[in-house]
From TrEMBL:
UniProt-listed Pfam families: PadR, Vir_act_alpha_C
Signal peptide: none
Domain Transcription regulator PadR N-terminal, chain residue ranges per copy: 7-80
InterPro entries for this protein: Tscrpt_reg_PadR_C, Tscrpt_reg_PadR_N, WH-like_DNA-bd_sf, WH_DNA-bd_sf
Domain of life: Bacteria
Residue span, Transcription regulator PadR C-terminal domain: 111-166
Name used for this protein in its record: PadR family transcriptional regulator
Organism: Phytohabitans kaempferiae
Amino acid sequence: MSVPLTLLGLLEREPSHGYDLKRDYDAFFGRGRPLPFGQVYATLGRLARDGKVVISEVQPGVGPERKRYVITEQGATEFDAWLTEPLEAEPHLQSVLFTKVVLALMLGRPAQDYLDRQRGAHLERMRELTEIRRSGSLVDALLADHGLFHLEADLRWIDTTAARLDALAAEVVKR
């Protein structure tokens, strides 16, 4: 996820203080990985340096001054270009799963054991995501669905690879 572009999007909605941006980022996009305050302010500093945001007002606070950030025309243009550009649809053809299986086969290690353990880890995560989908908000449910669909695709790949393991071993060992 692009933190700078996400912050620009939040600022396009309304001018905000860094604290408010962090709160909204964490609520919608952080999910278990809250954005550190230091990263928020460092990112805002770079966005200001690059002319994508400006400080509209400074208020005294208990600690540091509270700065309200506003997106500039340049920032809005960059955000709009990013938002309207589709993601690259090409799948990741060199995944860690694939790498581990091939290396296990090349080294004469039990690739099937790795696939079995990975299947178990995927199924456990799917149970967790299913519970989130059942008990969470709509945002949580949609994020859980996204994760579940990716895990389902990985499970199909694990099963297909397990079925072809002997043929794959013959191919990677002969090289």
